[in-house]
Specification:
This protein is α+β, with helices and mostly antiparallel strands. Helices cover 55% and strands 7% of the residues.
Length: 226
């Protein structure tokens, strides 16, 4: 299988299936399509549109068959590798895991917009300003904190549903964002975030992202240089 991704420093969507597969021990070949201006006819758009009509990464290609969109990829992998137990075994826990992943997939627009993915950066001043000026971002953070707190309490940790699952891979980019912008969270949430970044799959993604040194100004409207 091949997994087509964007720049690791910036591509939160690509991070999800990459971390999922690495952490679960599912072998794949990584193919990185460097981000550019995303306009029609650009190198990125031209390359990715050969793989899927949506023109976005990530894309999983299994024996020539493309699967795009992170939820679709996660479901495909869960069905193809049932022994990996990527979703919780319990019916209701599995439904809850799907619910929170779907909520992440379609929601938290304010957090996405104002806390852009940037693995290599440390931007506490930006984080403080955004939280002060944008109450909708604080609302997204509050919802995530409440969600994680409830799941950790219900399933006893150390991860959202006890053992590693699609849900932890799905929220790994959020962990990175909260750390980049030094967003204040309760101690139990900080501890969960520390456990996530210590996962071998997440640690490998972060290491690769830090090695890219590929500053893209259009991804960083809040900065003028690396």
């Amino acid at each position: 299988m091949q997994l087509y991704i964007g720049n690791k420093n910036y591509s939160s969507w690509s991070m999800r299936p990459w971390v999922l597969m690495k952490q679960a021990g599912i072998p794949f070949e990584e193919v990185m399509l460097r981000f550019d201006a995303f306009v029609p006819g650009s190198a990125f758009k031209t390359a990715v549109e050969r793989l899927n009509p949506a023109g976005r990464v990530p894309v999983l290609v299994d024996d020539g068959f493309p699967v795009w969109d992170t939820l679709a990829i996660a479901e495909y992998l869960a069905e193809r590798y049932p022994d990996k137990r990527l979703w919780p075994a319990d019916l209701r826990a599995r439904a809850r895991a799907r619910s929170v992943c779907a909520e992440m997939h379609s929601g938290f627009a304010a957090l996405r917009e104002h806390f852009g993915m940037n693995v290599e950066a440390s931007l506490p001043e930006v984080g403080a300003r955004v939280l002060k000026e944008r109450p909708e971002v604080q609302g997204d953070v509050d919802r995530i904190v409440a969600m994680w707190t409830d799941l950790l309490a219900e399933h006893g940790g150390p991860l959202l549903f006890g053992a590693f699952s699609i849900a932890d891979a799905y929220f790994a980019p959020v962990v990175i964002r909260l750390r980049t912008y030094a967003v204040p969270v309760p101690p139990q949430i900080t501890a969960y975030m520390d456990r996530v970044v210590a996962l071998p799959g997440v640690a490998a993604w972060v290491e690769d992202a830090l090695a890219e040194h590929d500053f893209l100004p259009f991804e960083e409207a809040y900065r003028t240089g690396p």
